[in-house]
Amino acid sequence: MTITELAEQTAELSHTYQVTPEVYQAFQLCSQDMNPLHTDESFAQEKGFESRVMYGNILNAFISHFVGMCLPTPDVMIQSQDISFHKPVFLHDEITLQAGIDTVSEAVNIINYKLKFYKKTDAGRQLVAKGHVQIGLLGK
What we know:
Layout: H1 3-9, E1 12-18, H2 21-31, H3 36-39, H4 41-46, H5 58-70, E2 76-85, E3 94-105, E4 110-121, E5 124-137
Antiparallel strand pairs: 1-3, 2-5, 3-4, 4-5
């Protein structure tokens, strides 16, 4: 597959994730981040949140899944990524990652995707984060 073919097949993609207790616990175990904003319901509520705020970097893990499992080839590798957080994410939230191509470079075999993360709400959906991921197509 060429970078142009990959870009054509992946011009607009989305995938929905759930912030389950298992996702939360696995990230906490991996990161060893025990900040009370993420672990103590009372602390988070005292700071003005409805409940414990989920780790923002769970969204980075969703990007990893998206690149590694949702793109139509295993011959890809993340070269860089960034996220700007706009709204908190809570346990059990349903998050949809929407990706669209920003730029493609045939010369260096990369695609830059713009990312938007939306949380499903009673009113529809709410933007919780934006970001970018640059992927490279692996050679032989």
